[in-house]
Amino acid sequence: MTDTNTYINQLAQTRKDLEAFDPEAWNAFSALVQTTSKGGALPAKVKEIIMVALGVADHCQFCIAIHTKRAIEAGASRQEIMEGAMMAIAMGGGPSMAFMRYVVDACNEFGAE
After folding, report:
1. DSSP run (H or E) holding 24
2. Is the pLDDT of residue 2 over 90?
3. What is the DSSP letter of 37?
4. Maximum CA pair distance of the chain?
5. Which residues contact 107 (CB under 8 A, 6 or more apart)?
6. What share of the chain is helix, strand, coil (3-state, %, to 5)?
7. C-alpha dist (Å) from residue 101 to 35, 37, 45, 75
8. Cβ atoms < 10 Å from Cβ of 67
9. Is residue 71 within 8 Å of residue 49, measured between CB atoms?
10. 68-109: pLDDT as tens digits
11. Model-level pTM?
12. Distances (CA, A) of 52 to 23, 40, 104
């Protein structure tokens, strides 16, 4: 089983390092993420599920960990997260299927029901 909290902790440290290195670039990136992630025509939980699928398609354990956690916090169920993430397999084939391991582990670790 993957320790998805480790990915979240590493990502938090990377954020601090990048923010210290170039605060202007970090703030611009952060504003973009916050703006595009908030609810609108698509609820925030749907956007987070999309981000999980994009993390699977791009083979990014960090993205899978943080966006699975945020999807759960936004009210997404395990079924919704898994179905959304499985969409990446249609586009990414076997490698994306293998990265579903991280989605399963994140759902388990963060208590998706």
Report:
1. helix 23-37
2. no
3. H
4. 39
5. 68, 72, 78, 81, 82
6. 80, 0, 20
7. 29, 24, 21, 21
8. 28
9. yes
10. 999 999 999 999 999 999 999 999 999 999 999 999 999 999
11. 0.92
12. 26, 18, 11
Q: Which two tokens stand for residue 59?
A: 């083979």
User: What is the per-residue pLDDT across 39-67, written as a single tens digit (0 to 9) for each?
Assistant: 999 999 999 999 999 999 999 999 999 99
- Show me where the domains of the chain are located: 4-109
Look up the CATH number of domain 4-109.
Answer: 1.20.1290.10
Q: Using an 8 Å Cβ cutoff, are 33 and 70 in contact?
A: no
Q: What is the DSSP letter of 75?
A: T
Q: Which two tokens stand for residue 12?
A: 């938090």
For the chain, first and last CA: distance in Å?
A: 18
DSSP output for 1-25: ---HHHHHHHHHHHHHHHHHH-HHH
* Tokens representing residue 45 in the block: 């939980």
pLDDT at 40: 95
